[in-house]
Amino acid sequence: MIMSAQDHDLGFVHRFVPARDHSRKPLLLLHGTGGDENDLIALGERLSPATALLSPRGKVLEGGMPRFFRRIAEGEWDLEDFYGRSAELAQFVAVARKKYALPPPIALGFSNGANIAWSLLLRDPKLLGGAILMRAMLPFDPRPLPDLDGVPVLILAGFNDPLVPADQAALLAALLGEAGADVTYEAVQGGHGLTADDLSLAGSWLAKNG
Description:
Elements: E1 3-6, E2 13-17, E3 27-30, H1 41-47, E4 53-56, E5 60-62, E6 65-67, E7 71-73, E8 76-77, H2 79-100, E9 106-110, H3 112-123, E10 130-134, E11 152-158, H4 166-178, E12 182-188, H5 196-209
Parallel strand pairs: 3-4, 3-9, 9-10, 10-11, 11-12
Antiparallel strand pairs: 1-2, 2-4, 5-6, 7-8
């Protein structure tokens, strides 16, 4: 059974794929700019077969392309909107977990989705069971930090990413580690798009942490 709907109780257009293997953590799929609730379903099924998938669509439009929060320019975020949208998405995840009877999911986010995923981690450490952050960045200092003691996080950066310099992803890894998260940071040979190495690293990490 696959659900796709605007649920007024949940507030986001989303897809939900029920688990066939309840021993694995669900995945919260958070797309990049221009994606939607369908964008990462195949990736989630490939990386963690038979797990439950929860995939919302971002509500912000930039040139007609869905995003999870507004930005003023490339690399410059509207922080008021960022924090407000993070709170709204956190509420969606909390209500969806109750509706679908889900344990804390692992957030699997790409680009814009990865950025709001780390915001969810910092906002409520108990909301998620971990995170895979693909091509995430850290354009400002979000301190003070919560206690993320032992929360598993995988950060995947691209050495040749023209949008997210690898050192920004490394700064994010250091910050989450400072908060106590169990962070694995990997930089692959590639740009902003995902590579076979990204999929291999994410699959291996999920096999241990999912």
